Amino acid sequence: MTEDRTTLFRVFAKAHPTDRKILVGPTLLWGREVLRSLARESGGWIGWEPVTLRSLADDLALVELSETGIRVGSDVEIGAIAGAALDECIAQDQVPAQWHDLAANAGFRRAVENAVLELRVAGVAPAEVRALQAAGTVHGIAAVLEHYAALLATHGLADAAAVFTAALASFEREAPYLLDAEIVLAPSLNPRGLPGQLLTRLIERGAHVLSESAEGLQQEADIFVAATPYDEVREALRRAVAEGMRLDQVELVCSDVDAYGIALDALARHLGFQATLQEGLPWQRSRVGRALARLLDWMEDGLPADRLREALEAGDIAPPTADPHQTGATLARALRLLRIGWGRDRYETVLTQQIDPNLAALLHALLDHLPPTTERAAARECETTPQAIAQSLLHFLDLVPLADASDRFNADRLRLRLEALAELQQAPQPFSAAIGAIREALGDFRIWPQVATGGSPRLSRGGAVHLCDFRHAGVTG
Hints:
Elements: E1 2-3, H1 5-15, E2 21-25, H2 28-42, E3 48-52, H3 53-67, E4 71-72, H4 75-91, H5 98-102, H6 106-121, H7 126-130, H8 137-155, E5 157-158, H9 160-169, H10 171-178, E6 182-185, H11 193-204, E7 208-210, H12 229-242, E8 251-254, H13 257-271, E9 274-277, E10 281-282, H14 287-300, H15 305-314, H16 328-337, H17 344-350, H18 357-367, E11 383-384, H19 386-397, H20 405-422, E12 429-430, H21 431-442, E13 446-447, E14 464-469
Parallel strand pairs: 1-7, 2-3, 2-6, 4-5, 6-7, 8-14, 9-14
Antiparallel strand pairs: 10-13, 11-12
């Protein structure tokens, strides 16, 4: 049954003022924004509980998985297992020959990992993949799928697909206890694969489906063309202000949250207004992320002193016992005069000489926790582990100056991700592959340049223009 959002919520508020009511959305953020909008319209949201199909599956599968001794893996653990499955297939020559050359590429590894996880959630078995009349890449994916499933079983872990499978198996047993409420479904939920099967079960149980009508939107569109995303965002805000709107009455909906998010953030910093970003920005856009990205590049490129000099000049790193009268620029000049070039040996040589004590403290802090790295023009690539690189990055994080609440917020979140990576137990591998695994694990990490105390940085808030993707368009009200 499909029903209008406003009408349905008012009916529920009247018929079930304090009873439990479950709102199932594509993301938790979607549900929270809809309920905040509802609270502004009706004055309250008592009894409403925002969830997703995945969080419902977690609850439904809890008993089933615990009885079998299986634990739900974190995204870091699942990513590591997918990477290990790919490496096993490459070592056993079960994939196309060109995969051997691409194995150290973070983008390639992420593409394979995403393909495997999507096929799993879609309920596609390796045999079904092999049945396709295609060679090469398709059969390589099938091999990785098989190894990935075997590794999950070996480690006693469950991924999203295993959670949905367990939830479906225990639905009839658990639903009377966990779903004893009115259930409302967003219209944009994915009806395919294992999540689609759970969605069908919810509808059969009497869940209400919201309509897809664009209620409350104006019928007229004001179309214009701009040269860049920055110009486009600036013009959209100029027109909104010209119409007498407050900033928190403006929602920018875009197809590319990175390009337009970066543009909005740059404009907000330049003009001094507040902005909230539903998906945040790539992790390299923060001071903390930029510093760690420079240090990763420094390790990967053979420890060139120029990388450190750039980080000092930008204020991205500082000595552990910095002199308040000495700037990053003066330390960068002192580093340039040492003519180190690159390579661990050159750094260790200059540390035996009389050099600036602050610069010496910085170099010691870097080298003391540095894993084995491949030198430039080395005849053979060294080996290390992703966890060793993650542990070194955790130490490097202490060298990054944290200027404000956003820096501290992003540093804390990055530290949690790196700690999870540092706890993984993986065999030594070529240095380039280990660096690639770290880049892959950080690839989807997001940061927020403006953080308000007491609330999620992803949610809209008073006084701030909000930017979101098409899936979340209009839910802020």
